[in-house]
Amino acid sequence: EDQVTQSPEALRLQEGESSSLNCSYTVSGLRGLFWYRQDPGKGPEFLFTLYSAGEEKEKERLKATLTKKESFLHITAPKPEDSATYLCAVPPQGGSEKLVFGKGTKLTVNP
Amino acid sequence: DAGITQSPRHKVTETGTPVTLRCHQTENHRYMYWYRQDPGHGLRLIHYSYGVKDTDKGEVSDGYSVSRSKTEDFLLTLESATSSQTSVYFCAISGAGQSDGELFFGEGSRLTVL
Question: A11-22, pLDDT tens digit by residue?
Answer without folding.
Answer: 999 999 999 999
